[in-house]
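Researcher: Checking consistency across runs. Here is BMP family ABC transporter substrate-binding protein again:
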Amino acid sequence: MKNSMRAMAATAGLALMLGACSAAPEAEKTATAEGTAAPVASAKDFKACMVSDEGGFDDKSFNQSGFEGLQRAQKELGIQIASTESNSDADFEPNLNKLIGEKCNLIFAVGFKLASATYNAAKAHPDVDFALIDSAEPFDEKAGKPLDKLPNFKPLVFNTAEAAFLAGYAAAGMTQTGKVGTYLGMKLPTTAIFADGFADGIKRYNADHGTDVKLLGWDKDKQDGQATGDFSDVNKGKATTTNLINQGADIIMPVAGPVGAGTLAAAKEANDGGKNISVVWVDSDGVLTNPNDSKLILTSVMKLIGEAVFDTTKDLVDGKPFSSDPYVGNVANKGVDIAPFHDFDSKVSDDLRAKLDELRKQIADGSLKVESPNSPK
């Protein structure tokens, strides 16, 4: 699929180059109170671009979600787009420079690993707007504080603890063994936040029902737990999941991007052996991105990255000034949520479903606070 994505991108790029021969010159920009320029060109003159991390645009996770948002913007807004995939950290800077050279008005960078490269590119090219997905500004370790805010650098971050709380509550209500598990790809704020919310959802279920459902793989108080160490080694994901299953967990939430494919493989293998294992996917609706494994996926903790990409692009196309204030996706603004239960729908009781709806409303109106030390500020 990755090859097909590259082929699509190449075809799109050729079309853009051919179209450029008759396109109007790049529109002038006018200064705004926000400090960067608001495009005054028509939609057909606007170009939004995206750089992936090493997962690529077919990762069935946040890169793919972001790319789908970019494609939606092209289709619905009539803009030009361009994209480039990274295979390693060494590709980040040249890929960003490539898109800068292609006269992109707005460049999205997907993932925390691109933080420094994107910040540096924004600082060097104040006439281009940049949006960093799933990470805030880079941190200055020597000064012990974030780097200076740039007017053309916007973080798109997600308070996934809120949606993970709902998933944890659902998992606690569906487990047959009284044990559920989770693990991370790398121990980072953007992954730990899922496990924090998941842990609190289980805790709330226990308080509501007088149960003692246990979470394996993560200790919120200690901010420590199991991690594979990367976002690429599927075999590590399978081994970690098998270990959790052997400890009694029957619902597993991998917070590890493409490594989660190993969890699906381990769950299928265990179920073929007579167990009843299900999975909570993250970032995107796992049933839609992994249709062949739909019978394994209870629900998903979704970051609606595509919506954030589309909305950020649309604001600029509509002539709104670019704002460097972070976009924070949460339950209230529908930036995060859990996915439908799909194949598990008939197995979820009306009482559990009603309680999840009640909790979602309480989170949205602020009467229920889901707190994590890793939540975006």
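Researcher: Does this match what you'd expect to see?
Model: One thing to look at in this run: Confidence is low (pLDDT under 50) at residues 1-40.
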